[in-house]
Amino acid sequence: MHAPSQHSPSPSPAAATTAPFLTPKSTKTRSNPPSRCFLTLQARIWRFLAQIGFWLHTFPKPSPSAPSFLRHFTTTALDGTNCARLKLAFYVPADYARQIQRGKRYPVVVNFHGGGFTMGRTSDDARWAAMIVRHVSVVLVAVAYRLAPECPFPTAVEDGVCALLHISANADALGIDARNICLSGFSAGGNLAFTIPLRLQSHLRSLRHEHDRRHVPPLLPRITAIIAWYPSLDYRLSRTQRRAASLAPGKHLPAFLTNLFDASYLPSHACVTSPFVSPAAATDEALMAALPDDIAL
Question: How do strand 176-186 and strand 294-296 relate by DSSP bridges?
Answer without folding.
Answer: unpaired
